[in-house]
Design a protein that fits this description.
74% of the residues lie in helices and 0% in strands. With 284 residues, it is an all-alpha fold. It has two domains: 46 residues; 212 residues, Orthogonal Bundle (MetI-like fold), CATH 1.10.3720.10. Helix 10 packs antiparallel against helix 13. It is a multi-pass membrane protein. It is found in: Cell membrane.
């Protein structure tokens, strides 16, 4: 009896369900196994990586991490990346939330035109207008400045964020903000205390969606930051690429350290992220 009950969930899935479940397992393995390989390689010396790339290390050592953090100036690049990413995220979340609220909750003549204007920003990535951006930042005195790079990232992330948040603000019942106004709440209080908490899962989606490309970007910091003390983590990892050889042990250690903030960000926001993805998918 117990065996038949245990088999029931698989019977309910059916052939198509089992096939999809298998695809999900393969996808999970495709994500987890490279991370495990990176972590294992980070605690191996470079010769051992070439000798047995998939085997566990013969001796467990954190020398690669110490070398990356000290001689590779990883602490400096790490602080720079955190400053740039957090600064850009504050601007993206702040301005896109206010713009999404205005476009989603108010009907006025230029509503659709402004919304399309934001969407047009999705068609022009920063890399496409790299030369005009460089000229503009140079005229503004923002070359070799973290603030200039933060502005570029914020401008690139706001269109997608407005697109995501506007749709969710529009889906919220109008009785919520109307009741708050009847109770005497100002427009800012309606936005900050009533509407914004309701789109917290969508803010988590925007935060993760925009933070990953900012943290991993290599080209824009390479172009706009010439001072070595201002460079970011992806640029810092290039010191382990030699002209004739690559020191893979410290490189994998650096990649592991570089991936940790994004993994922690997802773990912290995972509950809100899943709620945002499944919003409207179920009733109740």
């Amino acid at each position: 009896m117990s065996l038949s009950r245990a088999a029931n969930p698989w019977r309910k899935l059916g052939p198509s369900g089992i096939f999809l479940f298998g695809l999900l397992i393969l996808n999970a393995l495709g994500v987890i196994l490279p991370l495990l390989l990176m972590l294992i390689s980070a605690i191996k010396p470079t010769p051992e990586i070439f000798a047995s790339p998939f085997a566990l290390p013969q001796t467990w050592s954190l020398n690669n991490f110490a070398r990356v953090w000290e001689s590779g100036r990883f602490d400096l690049y790490f602080r720079n990346s955190i400053l740039i990413t957090v600064g850009a995220e504050i601007l993206i979340l702040g301005f896109s939330a206010m713009a999404g609220y205005a476009l989603g909750r108010f009907k006025f003549r230029l509503n659709d035109a402004i919304y399309v204007f934001f969407l047009a920003g999705l068609m022009f990535p920063a890399k496409l207008v790299l030369v005009p951006l460089f000229v503009q930042l140079k005229e503004m005195g923002l070359i070799n400045s973290h603030f200039g790079l933060i502005l570029v990232y914020a401008a690139g992330g706001i269109p997608a964020a407005v697109f995501i948040l506007t749709g969710f603000f529009r889906a919220l019942p109008s009785d919520l903000d109307n009741a708050a106004r009847i109770d005497g709440a100002s427009e800012w209080q309606v936005f900050w205390k009533v509407m914004l908490p309701l789109v917290r899962p969508q803010l988590a989606i925007v935060a993760i969606y925009t933070a990953i490309p900012i943290w991993n970007d290599f080209l824009l910091p390479l172009v706009f930051l010439q001072d070595p003390t201002l460079k970011t983590v992806p640029q810092g990892l290039t010191v382990f690429f030699g002209e004739y050889a690559t020191d893979y042990g410290p490189l994998f250690a650096g990649l592991t350290l570089a991936a940790m903030p994004l993994i922690l960000l997802y773990l912290l926001l995972s509950e809100q992220f899943i709620k945002g993805l499944t919003a409207g998918a179920t009733k109740g």
